Amino acid sequence: MTDRLLQAEHLSKTYSLPGGGSHTAAEDVSFTVPEGGALGIVGESGSGKTTVARMLVGLARPDHGRITVAGREREPRAPRGRTARLTRAREIQMVFQDPYVSLDPRLTATQCLHTALRLHGRPESEAGPLLDRVGLGSREADARPRDLSGGQRQRLAIARALAVDPRILVLDEAVAALDVSIQAQILRLLAEIRRETAVALVFVSHDLAVVQHVTDEVLVMRTGRVVERGPTHRVLTTPEHPYTHLLLASVPTTEDWDPTAAARARERAAATEEGP
Ligand SMILES: Nc1ncnc2c1ncn2[C@@H]1O[C@H](COP(=O)(O)OP(=O)(O)OP(=O)(O)O)[C@@H](O)[C@H]1O
After folding, report:
1. Which of 51, 59, 137, 138 has its CA 20 to 30 A from that of 267?
2. Quick check: CB of 154 below 6 Å from ligand 1?
3. Which residues pair with 6 in a beta bridge?
């Protein structure tokens, strides 16, 4: 068991803006995830969560910092050579919010998995067990993405990521577009996958109610910086940073949640920050 399977150290990313100027989307973000562990990255829209996720998988290049998987540094760019590229793909796979855009519309679910399995030198016969693993049956196996529901498409995207046998799965708002009951099913599925494999999860979400079901540790991001971190249960029940309090007040996690009080708390916090 590796207690530092994924290590992100001092990641920073600043974007140049059209028309001049720049915007720092992530600043000095560090964390580790053990083998089989699950880390949540939470924060409001624009807090830098996706930027961190994109740096992990290599879709954005950090300006500073480094990322290692099992002690091996990940190069910011995709390496040359097929073997090195496939090895890198097996380190980290990503599941996006909308699998509709990342799944090939021409391929049935089975064909989609065959393609991923073949590419990684694994037998096509693993497609059936993978579909089974994510709860897709024989009808869905022959269906193309447009004929699947949102939840089924997300199951297929997870199966395709697992076909690569990755060590780490990064999920960016992976259940955000789904109905609450379907969200719960996908979260249960992820929890099962975690139990059965040693895959580690990095679960990016604006929704604290969602991360509490799948993660052990959580990072709270605000304007590109980590403002709080700790065991998920502790952060959600006894938050230390005022911003985490605010985030918690903003989500209907309890029966006595009061949207008006939450909105007022946010307005008060914004006014305090802006100053006189
Ligand atoms: N390519 C880019 N060029 C310029 N600015 C960017 C770029 N990508 C992200 N940003 C800015 O960086 C900040 C962080 O964006 P990011 O998408 O990482 O946040 P987020 O927390 O994931 O939010 P959301 O949930 O809305 O995607 C935002 O202010 C965003 O506008």
Report:
1. 51
2. no
3. 33, 69
